[in-house]
C-alpha cells in the first residue's frame, strides 16, 4: 500500500477538493503548477537557502539523555522549536510565499488559531514585501494578545473572525471567503495539511524537510537511517506530516500521532478527531472530522490552541483508518505535566502542542533499545501564561 | 420531465417576455423552526416562479453574514435534515412551483446521499444546488443516483470560470446554470456595474443549451432587471432574508411585488 497522495488528490479515500466553483480557478491554478514550480532548480535553491540562513536549518536532532534515562529508552528530540519564529510553521510559509511570488500573487491571506501560523506568515510577507491579511477568531485574538502584537509589528493586518464560534475553524472560513472575494491577486497560505487538494500535499512537501534531516542526522548519531518510532502531535497535522513524510511507506518505522484529548475523550471537551470523528467534508477536504449526527461541524476543545481543530488532514485520516499510524490521545493534564518535565529534565520549554507528543512516554511503553524521535514542533514562550496559571507558578 | 425542466421549457418565453423567472432563496428553520411551508405557500401566492430551500450548515463557506446568521439561528432553532423532510411531507398538496434544496455537501453525506435523494423524490423536491460538490466528483460518484430520483443538479459558474469549463458544466447540466454575478460570497454587492454586464453578455452569447439564472447581489427591482436583461431569471437570497428579519412573514408579498415593479 502507498500512504502518499495519488494523482487524483486522495490519500486512500480521503482528500479531494470539495470547493465552491468560485474557488475553482485559484485552486486549479495551484494544482496545475505546484509540483512544477517546486521542482524548478531556482525555486529549490531559494527555498533551501532561506531555510538555512533565515530559518536556521538544519534544526538539531538532540539526544535527550536524562529523559531517556527516566523512561528507559532512547529518545531524540527534533528541535523544530529552534526555527525562526519558534515553530515548524515557517518551513511551510517560506515555501508558500515563494510559490505565491512565482504565481504572480501580490496579496497574502492566512488563518491562524494560536497565532503561530499567523506570525510565520506575517514574517515571510515582511521578508518579501507583500501585503498580508491574517484572519483570527475574535476569541483567539483575546487569548493570544502577544502574537496579535507580533503580527502587527511585522506589518500584517489582523482581521477578527466574528462568525460561528469565533475560533480557528471560523478564521479558516473567513480566509476562504476572502479568497472567494479576491480571486485574482491573492494567495491563501494555509497553515496545515488541510484544505482542498493540492494544499495537504503541498504543505506536507514543504514540511518534509523535517524527516529528510532526521534521516541524515540519525545516520550520523546512530549509524542508522530509521528510528523505530516517530512521534508527533496532530491538530491539523502539519508537523506530523513533515516528521512522517519520508517514512510513510517504510513499515519498519512506527508512526505515532498524538491528539489532544482535552478534558478526556468522553468529556465533551476534546479535540481527539480519530476517536470522535466521522468521515465528512471540512474546508474542502474529505477527511475525519468531529460533527453531529446531522453533519454540523462541532467545536473542539484543547488547552493548546494549536491542536484545537475539529478535523485532521486527509493524510492522517488515511494513516488512522488503514492502521499505518498509531493514534493516541493525551489529556490537557498529562500534556502540561510532560511539558513541565521537559523543562526540568532537559532545560527546554516546549509548546503545549509539542508537550502532548512528549506525554507519550507516560502512556506507552517502549523497549530499552528502541530509538524514538519526538518532533518538538514548537517552543513554549507563547504558552507561558497558560503554564503560569496551570501550575500556579 | 420534472418541474424545473417544465418551468424552463418556457425558456424562450422567459427570455423574451418582460417578466423574467424570479426565484427566492431562504434558510429552512428561519426565522422560526416551523415557518418553512408557510413561507413556501406565500412565495407561490406572491407569484414567485421557483424556490431554493436552504438546508442550514454550521460552516457555509460561500455565504456572507446574512445567510451565515440565518443558518446559525435555524440550527439553534433545532433544524435538521430529518425535520426538514418531515416539514415538507405534504408540501406538494399546497405548493406546485419547482422546489430546490440548496446546501453544503457534508449534511447530505451524513444523511446518506442515496437516502437523501430518495427522500427528496418522496416529498417532491426537483433539484439540488450543492456549491461544494465539484463537477468531477458529481460526474464520477453521484450523477446516476441523482438521475434515478429525477433530481436536477445545478452547477455554479463565476466571472472567473473559463469558457471551456462553462461548456463542460453546460453538458453536465439538464436544468439551468446558476450564474454567480461576481467574485463574491452571497449578500456582498452594491449593485451591478459594467463588469457584470459584460460577463452576463459574454456567457449569454455562448448559446448554451441550459438557461441562465443569475444569483448573488440581486436585491431589488433595479438589480433584478439588470441581472435578467440577457438571462432567463434571477435568484434573490440575502435581501429576502433581511426582509424576513425585519418584517417577518407578513412582509413577503410586498417584497416580491417590489421586485416585479417595472
TrEMBL record, chain A:
Keywords on record: Amino-acid biosynthesis, Aromatic amino acid biosynthesis, Lyase, Pyridoxal phosphate, Tryptophan biosynthesis
Pathway(s) it belongs to: Amino-acid biosynthesis; L-tryptophan biosynthesis; L-tryptophan from chorismate: step 5/5
GO CC annotations, alphabetized: cytoplasm
Catalytic activity: (1S,2R)-1-C-(indol-3-yl)glycerol 3-phosphate + L-serine = D-glyceraldehyde 3-phosphate + L-tryptophan + H2O
PROSITE patterns, per database record: TRP_SYNTHASE_BETA
Required co-factors: pyridoxal 5'-phosphate
SUPFAM superfamilies, per database record: Tryptophan synthase beta subunit-like PLP-dependent enzymes (SSF53686)
Domain of life, source organism: Bacteria
Keyword Transcription listed: no
Record domain Tryptophan synthase beta chain-like PALP: where: 56-378
Gene Ontology MF terms: tryptophan synthase activity
Gene3D superfamilies: 3.40.50.1100
EC nos: 4.2.1.20
Xref: PANTHER family: TRYPTOPHAN SYNTHASE (PTHR48077:SF3), TRYPTOPHAN SYNTHASE-RELATED (PTHR48077)
Assembly with partners or alone: Tetramer of two alpha and two beta chains.
Family membership: Belongs to the TrpB family.
Job description of the protein: The beta subunit is responsible for the synthesis of L-tryptophan from indole and L-serine.
NCBIfam families: trpB
Name used for this protein in its record: Tryptophan synthase beta chain
Protein's organism: Aequorivita xiaoshiensis
Gene of this entry: trpB
TrEMBL record, chain B:
SUBUNIT field: Tetramer of two alpha and two beta chains.
Protein name, entry field: Tryptophan synthase alpha chain
Reactions catalysed according to its record: (1S,2R)-1-C-(indol-3-yl)glycerol 3-phosphate + L-serine = D-glyceraldehyde 3-phosphate + L-tryptophan + H2O
Stored HAMAP family: Trp_synth_alpha (MF_00131)
Highest rank taxon of the organism: Bacteria
Enzyme class of the recorded protein, top EC level: lyase
Entry's family note: Belongs to the TrpA family.
GO molecular function: tryptophan synthase activity
PROSITE patterns, per the entry: TRP_SYNTHASE_ALPHA
Amino acid at each position: 500500500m502507498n500512504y502518499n497522495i495519488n494523482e487524483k488528490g486522495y490519500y486512500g479515500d480521503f482528500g479531494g477538493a470539495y470547493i465552491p466553483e468560485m474557488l475553482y480557478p485559484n485552486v486549479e491554478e495551484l494544482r496545475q503548477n505546484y509540483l512544477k514550480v517546486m521542482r524548478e532548480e531556482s525555486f529549490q535553491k531559494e527555498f533551501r537557502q532561506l531555510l538555512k540562513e533565515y530559518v536556521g536549518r538544519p534544526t538539531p536532532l538532540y539526544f535527550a539523555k536524562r529523559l531517556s534515562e527516566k523512561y528507559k529508552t532512547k529518545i531524540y528530540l527534533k528541535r523544530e522549536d529552534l526555527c525562526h519564529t519558534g515553530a515548524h510553521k515557517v518551513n511551510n510559509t517560506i515555501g508558500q510565499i515563494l510559490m505565491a511570488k512565482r504565481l504572480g500573487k501580490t496579496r497574502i491571506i492566512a488563518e491562524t488559531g494560536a497565532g503561530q501560523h499567523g506570525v510565520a506568515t506575517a514574517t515571510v510577507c515582511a521578508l518579501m514585501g507583500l501585503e498580508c491579511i491574517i484572519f483570527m477568531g475574535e476569541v483567539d485574538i483575546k487569548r493570544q494578545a502577544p502574537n496579535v502584537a507580533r503580527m502587527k509589528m511585522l506589518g500584517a493586518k489582523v482581521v477578527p473572525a466574528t462568525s460561528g464560534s469565533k475560533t480557528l475553524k471560523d478564521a479558516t472560513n473567513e480566509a476562504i471567503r476572502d479568497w472567494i472575494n479576491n480571486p485574482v491577486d491573492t494567495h491563501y497560505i494555509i497553515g496545515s495539511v488541510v484544505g482542498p487538494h493540492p494544499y495537504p500535499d503541498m504543505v506536507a512537501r514543504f514540511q518534509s524537510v523535517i524527516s529528510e534531516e532526521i534521516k541524515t542526522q540519525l545516520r550520523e548519531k546512530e549509524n542508522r537511517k530509521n528510528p523505530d518510532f516517530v512521534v508527533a502531535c496532530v491538530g491539523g497535522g502539519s508537523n506530523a506530516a513533515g516528521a512522517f513524510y519520508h517514512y510513510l511507506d517504510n513499515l519498519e518505522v512506527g508512526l505515532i500521532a498524538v491528539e489532544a484529548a482535552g478534558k478526556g475523550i468522553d468529556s465533551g471537551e476534546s479535540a481527539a478527531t480519530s476517536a470522535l470523528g466521522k468521515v465528512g467534508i471540512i474546508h474542502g477536504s474529505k477527511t475525519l472530522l468531529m460533527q453531529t449526527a446531522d453533519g454540523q461541524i462541532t467545536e473542539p476543545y484543547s488547552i493548546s490552541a494549536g491542536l484545537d481543530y475539529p478535523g485532521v488532514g486527509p493524510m492522517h485520516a488515511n494513516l488512522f483508518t488503514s492502521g499505518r499510524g498509531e493514534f493516541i490521545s493525551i489529556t490537557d493534564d498529562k500534556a502540561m505535566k510532560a511539558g513541565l518535565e521537559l523543562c526540568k529534565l532537559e532545560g527546554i520549554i516546549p509548546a503545549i502542542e509539542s508537550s502532548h507528543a512528549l506525554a507519550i512516554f507516560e502512556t506507552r511503553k517502549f523497549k530499552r533499545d528502541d530509538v524514538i524521535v519526538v518532533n518538538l514542533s514548537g517552543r513554549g514562550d507563547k504558552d507561558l501564561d497558560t503554564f503560569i496559571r496551570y501550575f500556579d507558578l | 420531465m420534472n418541474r424545473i425542466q417544465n418551468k424552463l421549457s418556457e425558456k424562450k418565453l422567459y427570455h423574451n417576455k418582460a417578466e423574467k423567472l424570479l426565484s427566492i432563496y431562504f434558510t429552512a428553520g428561519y426565522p422560526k423552526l416551523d415557518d418553512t411551508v408557510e413561507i413556501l405557500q406565500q412565495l407561490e401566492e406572491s407569484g414567485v416562479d421557483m424556490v431554493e430551500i436552504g438546508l442550514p450548515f454550521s460552516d457555509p463557506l460561500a455565504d456572507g453574514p446574512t445567510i451565515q446568521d440565518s443558518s446559525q439561528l435555524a440550527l439553534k432553532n433545532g433544524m435538521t435534515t430529518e425535520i426538514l423532510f418531515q416539514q415538507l411531507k405534504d408540501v406538494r398538496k399546497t405548493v406546485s412551483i419547482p422546489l430546490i434544496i440548496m446546501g453544503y455537501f457534508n449534511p447530505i453525506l451524513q444523511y446518506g446521499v442515496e437516502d437523501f435523494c430518495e427522500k427528496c423524490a418522496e416529498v417532491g423536491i426537483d433539484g439540488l444546488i450543492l456549491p461544494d460538490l465539484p463537477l468531477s466528483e458529481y460526474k464520477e460518484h453521484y450523477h446516476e443516483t441523482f438521475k434515478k430520483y429525477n433530481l436536477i443538479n445545478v452547477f455554479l459558474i463565476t466571472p472567473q470560470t473559463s469558457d471551456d469549463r462553462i461548456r463542460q458544466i453546460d453538458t453536465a447540466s439538464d436544468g439551468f446554470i446558476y450564474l454567480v454575478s461576481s467574485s463574491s460570497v452571497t449578500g456582498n454587492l452594491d449593485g451591478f456595474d459594467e463588469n457584470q454586464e459584460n460577463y452576463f453578455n459574454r456567457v449569454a452569447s455562448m448559446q448554451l443549451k441550459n438557461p441562465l439564472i443569475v444569483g448573488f447581489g440581486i436585491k431589488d427591482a433595479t438589480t433584478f432587471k439588470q441581472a435578467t436583461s440577457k438571462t432567463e431569471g434571477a435568484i434573490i437570497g440575502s435581501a429576502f432574508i433581511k426582509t424576513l428579519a425585519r418584517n417577518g412573514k407578513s412582509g413577503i408579498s410586498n417584497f416580491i411585488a417590489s421586485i416585479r415593479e417595472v
